[in-house]
Amino acid sequence: MVNSQRLSINVYLKTMVPRDPGHLKRPVTSLIFDLPEPTHDATHWREERMTRVTSPKRRSLFLLAALLGLLSGASAFGQGTATLKGRITDPSGAVVPGATITATETKTSFARSSTTSEDGYFSIPLLRPAEYKVSIEAAGFKRYEQAGVQLVADQTATLNAVVELGVATEAITVEGGVNQVDLQTPTLKGVIDERRINELPLNGRNAATLALLVAGVSETPADGATQCCDKTFPGAVSYSSNGGLQNTINFKLDGAENMDGYTNVNQPFPFPDVLQEFSVQTSNYGADLGNQSGGAVNIITKSGTNDLHGNLFGYLRNEVFNARNFFAPERDRLKRSQFGGTAGGPLLRDKTFWFVGFQSTELRNIQSAAAAIVPTAANMRGDFSALLDANAPENALGRRVQLVDPDTGQPFPGNIIPTSRFDPVAMKILSFIPQAGTTPGFGRFFYPRPIRNDEKSLFVRLDHMLGSNDRLAGRYYFSDYDEASTYDGSNILTLNPAANLRSQNILLHETHTFRPNLINDIRLSYGRVYSIRQRPKIDGFTAEALGVVQRFLPETGETFGFQVRPNFFSVSNTTSLWIARNNYVLNEDVK
Description:
Strand order of the largest sheet: 4-1-36-33-32-29-28-25-24-23
Strand content: 35-45%
Structural class: mainly beta
Oligomer: single chain
Number of strands: 36
Radius of gyration: 31 Å
Shape: elongated
Distance between the termini: 15 Å
């Protein structure tokens, strides 16, 4: 068997620059309100730079490990590519050394060759997942051709062929695929191909959810791994592979790192129309897919071909098309439209190819289940006597609550609080809060909260054959998500911060063949996620306007948050936040 010598060098530089303009707030209290100290997402963070190769000692150890990898002769292949192996024999079963095996992409004419060893074995690594035509030529034998050889991501396919005696001008053509069973590696994996991506139902057209079709992959509670939609990009998945943690799956896009360094989940999956396929490896995968212990997902995007092709698409969900759920008071008010298109083709036939895609998603909805317990007219007069009877229809808490004077530690008689004890800041806040009605159970207030977000994605790819031994590819994927702030001027409870997330992934990839048994594959990639959460500035509802005197306050003019306990109402207490995450990766494989 041919031993492939492999040297893999991976250099990572990650930066995370969170900035939180908010400051630690001390609680403001009154007889009615307890405004606790809010939790902060990030406070006084400094720029953090992490690199896998830092000190001279570490660099020496790293290079030593790489050298040992080269000398070990371990068989492996590049991330997201395929390998074709096999053995060539004659009709008597004798091996055929020195035969030339050429794999040619059917749609682009890109070709790679190898020769058989003295034992008749050959190996062509680092092949792009695609359909190939394989030809075999050897002195004294007829030319052998096999069409329709479909290779998929992270596959090691076996092609054993028998060539017949004759002259090279004669040819034997075989129709049919190669053995799809991986006889070369112990990896457990599954491939989600283009047909399943296009034909299986996808809620929101998020192809990442199809990873659940692979054995060993299961959905798990996010538990902070995904923090949609003001920190983590919408569509990030929380999966477990063979019982691993939900944020330990390594996602790669065309071999480039596609991870969010903040929560260690995936950056956006490309939309289905630009996806060719993706593989999910759950166990015994190669060390070149390291960084994570829970599994590896390699996403392969489409490229242009010699044929001009493209599509336009549009999807619409709207309440006018919906029937009312039997148990719902009204029809689903979700409005979501997704539209876009793709196009690809040759710039120079058999040499240079382009492919582009665009998708826009617009979502509008009403969150009608929002509820809060707000002061009643009696509460505004200081009368909380209804709270003494757990069964009283006016008691929205449903339990007996005795109010205690914080100054004396004694109960307020009859749960009546003198209005002279009310805090002026609390009274100003109440002017922004709607009053409850007078129906049984009053105190509980239901209100709608509008939802409005937009997402746009752009994909551009260029493939070029520099020469017979050089293939160059460049790819750019961009996604921008924008969620509008919500606020009803008569109800501060509807306040929701605005959020914007922007994801970018850039790849330069070059494969150079020095000789059939020496190939260099190098990838230079850059990934970035930039998230912004911004609270709106509302006239009259700032610490200064309300008369709050604290040592630490938010930015001047910015709305602040609070919570009224127990289980009354609250205003979003998230602080404004800016976080930039950058990943710089250089990956090189020598085989």
